[in-house]
């Protein structure tokens, strides 16, 4: 099997005056699970469509295993793709949908049957191979679409928000399953989503896109813990941004000098990244960063309470209080002191 | 009311039941005018027609009118009606499918403008259009004159007062009935299916044949059935452009009334036409479903 290395070079695409892709370059390792993450209009789907051959860019180069793909028609690219609404052929049953790529490749009937059976077993759908597409549930369609995309053993698998049509529980279950499948099959996978949780769960690396360009390309842990700008920081998790000021050679918030574990990556950092799970109820004045606020409301959420705080300068942050927390539940109107450890105190700049 | 009564009698059940009945009655009342109209202009005349077909010329109850349908003249005209309808439907499919396909692939705005040209013939009377064809197609008409001037033919082609003229005129009238349902069904085919086919490795031609064509089959079936059925009862164009040489079921009905004043025969012909039309529609509905799946599994 060939390796499936992808090299995207200076790809640009405009629709009229709207710039969908702005000189994007990206290298994807063989066997890597790479996620293109971004809000709608960020260019992630356009980039995927350029790779699949459905969108012709204005300029740029696309190399797959060193072969130029940019003008290759989509049916000659040999890439598997799972579409957002699955795009299973409604006039064919499950077996014929999965067998379709093999029939087009002229495989003998016996081998086709065997490979379809294997692909359907991989996604645990072998028992439904005679079903009509309209008789399948969303999760089952998802699996059949996946089987159709992997049945011809492509070196590259593309997925366009494949889980967005599923309900929350099934989505989380399928995330784990897709990740395991990728570990087992080892094909290079390019995954498009706007769901940061999905990206964090499954990817080897995440490319965060905005306005047609890649803002940050890194491992999930680095993207989450070390965002390189305000956009990436606020896109991941339940983030609130607090503006910081300069204080000598350091930074201050609400009159207190911030203690940092490492200096900010950017020279002109302006924002402190605050996430509910990084805020602590207990801290040490000498070691940790102290944040005082006025409790605005306390909301019961089943597994925890969510408490919103108003800070000086009309900023609002929130924190969770687990039932095991020994500090008493505050009431609205009370003053509350929270703590942020230096290693959890991340400063980012406005734009990279 | 006591607490015990509340336990045995669900709260407001009688009141809510009355409300439900009143609501249903109101909905039924709204449909009464339409039902009366249908009964008056459709059911009553047709029942009368069917009733007439059961009596012979002397006014006695008999099956004579239906027995007459088995005579060769009627059987032949019945067969030729089916042949003409099939021929016209076939030509309409050949001409209409590419048009509908083009329209379905264009941006919606452009398609809407071009659709006007498909619907345009509807705004002109069938009579006017048929006479226009007569002028175009006749022995010394525009088409024959041009062809002769260009030196392509030396003798006038027999384009009218025969099957050729009938089919040309009927196709012109019928084409929109095929294109419109076909276009609507093609518009509803999500372009993502063609992308998925390409991604599976299908060339544009293969994707069209194996995915688009089967998915458009129900629309094609609906359009073809509509065209075919309308052709079966078509009178004006075959009568004018056929020059009496194309014996359609509808011209037989007209002859029975106009030439022979035989209402019994005309009624029997009409009943037979209605039964056959219903049968064909039912068969086509069944066939289209089969067609869609079999094309997909090939």
Number of domains of chain A: 2
Order of helices and strands of chain A: EEEHEEEHHHEHEHEEHHEEEEEEEEEEE
Termini Cα gap of chain A: 39 Å
CATH classification class of the largest domain in chain B: Mainly Alpha
Gyration radius over CA of chain A: 24 Å
- Number of helices, counting only DSSP H or I runs of 4 residues or more of chain A: 8
Low-confidence stretches of chain A: none
Q: Most extensive interface, residues per chain?
A: A-B, 29 and 25 residues
CATH architecture of the largest domain in chain B: Orthogonal Bundle
Q: What is the CATH homologous superfamily assignment of the largest domain in chain A?
A: P-loop containing nucleotide triphosphate hydrolases
What CATH architecture of the largest domain in chain A would you give? 3-Layer(aba) Sandwich
Number of strands of chain A: 21
- Helix % of chain B is over 70%
**Cα radius of gyration of chain B in angstroms:** 27 Å
Shape of chain A: elongated
The fraction of residues in strands of chain B falls at under 5%
Spatial strand order of the main sheet of chain A: 6-7-8-3-9-10
Shape of chain B: flat
Largest sheet data of chain B: none
Mean pLDDT of chain A: 92
Helix count of chain B?
A: 13
């Amino acid at each position: 099997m060939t390796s499936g290395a992808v090299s995207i070079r200076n790809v640009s695409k405009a629709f009229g005056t709207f710039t969908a892709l702005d000189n994007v370059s990206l290298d994807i390792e063989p066997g890597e699970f790479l996620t293109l993450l971004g809000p709608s209009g960020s260019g992630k789907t356009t980039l995927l469509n350029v790779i699949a051959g459905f969108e012709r860019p204005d300029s740029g180069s696309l190399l797959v295993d060193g072969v130029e793909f940019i003008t290759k028609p989509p049916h000659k690219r040999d890439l598997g793709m799972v579409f957002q609404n699955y795009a299973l052929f409604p006039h064919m049953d499950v077996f014929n949908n999965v067998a379709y790529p093999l029939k087009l490749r002229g495989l003998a009937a016996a081998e086709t049957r065997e490979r379809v059976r294997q692909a359907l077993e991989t996604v645990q759908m072998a028992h439904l191979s005679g079903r009509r597409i309209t008789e399948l549930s969303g999760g089952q369609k998802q699996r059949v679409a996946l089987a159709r995309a992997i049945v011809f053993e492509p070196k590259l698998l593309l997925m366009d928000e494949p889980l967005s049509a599923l309900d929350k529980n099934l989505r989380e279950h399928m995330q784990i399953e897709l990740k395991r499948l990728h570990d087992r099959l080892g094909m290079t996978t390019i995954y498009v989503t706007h769901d940061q949780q999905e990206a964090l769960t499954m990817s080897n690396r995440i490319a965060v896109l905005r306005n047609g360009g890649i803002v940050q390309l890194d491992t999930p842990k680095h993207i989450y813990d070390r965002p390189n700008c305000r956009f990436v920081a606020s896109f991941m998790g339940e983030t609130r941004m607090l503006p910081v000021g300069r204080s000598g050679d350091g930074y201050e918030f609400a009159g207190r000098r911030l203690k940092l574990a490492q200096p900010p990556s950017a020279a002109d950092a302006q924002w402190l990244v605050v996430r509910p799970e990084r805020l602590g109820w207990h801290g040490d004045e000498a070691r940790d960063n102290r944040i005082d606020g006025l409790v605005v409301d306390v909301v019961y959420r089943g597994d925890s309470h969510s408490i919103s705080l108003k800070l000086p300068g009309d900023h609002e942050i929130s924190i969770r209080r687990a039932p095991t927390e020994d500090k008493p539940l505050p009431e609205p109107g009370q003053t509350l002191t929270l703590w942020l450890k230096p290693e959890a105190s991340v400063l980012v700049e406005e734009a990279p | 009311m006591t607490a015990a009564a509340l336990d045995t009698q669900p709260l407001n059940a009688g009141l809510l039941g009355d409300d439900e009945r009143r609501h249903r009655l109101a909905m039924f009342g709204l449909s009464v005018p339409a039902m009366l109209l249908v009964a008056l202009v459709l059911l009553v005349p047709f029942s009368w027609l069917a009733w007439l077909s059961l009596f012979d010329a002397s006014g006695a109850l008999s099956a004579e009118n239906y027995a007459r349908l088995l005579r060769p003249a009627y059987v032949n005209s019945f067969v030729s009606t089916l042949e003409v309808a099939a021929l016209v439907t076939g030509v309409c499919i050949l001409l209409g499918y590419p048009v509908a396909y083009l329209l379905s692939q264009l941006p919606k705005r452009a398609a809407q403008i071009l659709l006007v040209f498909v619907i345009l013939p509807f705004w002109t009377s069938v009579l006017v259009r048929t006479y226009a064809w007569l002028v175009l197609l006749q022995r010394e008409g525009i088409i024959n004159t041009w062809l002769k001037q260009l030196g392509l033919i030396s003798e006038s082609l027999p384009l009218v007062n025969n099957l050729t003229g009938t089919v040309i005129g009927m196709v012109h009238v019928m084409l929109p009935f095929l294109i419109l349902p076909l276009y609507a069904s093609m518009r509803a085919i999500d372009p993502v299916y063609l992308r998925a086919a390409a991604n599976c490795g299908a060339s544009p031609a293969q994707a069209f044949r194996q995915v688009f064509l089967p998915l458009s089959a129900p629309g094609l079936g609906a359009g073809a059935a509509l065209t075919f059925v309308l052709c079966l009862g078509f009178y004006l164009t075959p009568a004018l452009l056929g020059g009496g040489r194309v014996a359609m079921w509808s011209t037989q009905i007209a002859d029975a009334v106009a030439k022979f004043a035989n209402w019994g025969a005309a009624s029997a012909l009409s009943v037979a036409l209605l039964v056959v039309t219903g049968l064909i529609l039912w068969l086509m509905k069944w066939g289209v479903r089969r067609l869609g799946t079999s094309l997909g599994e090939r």
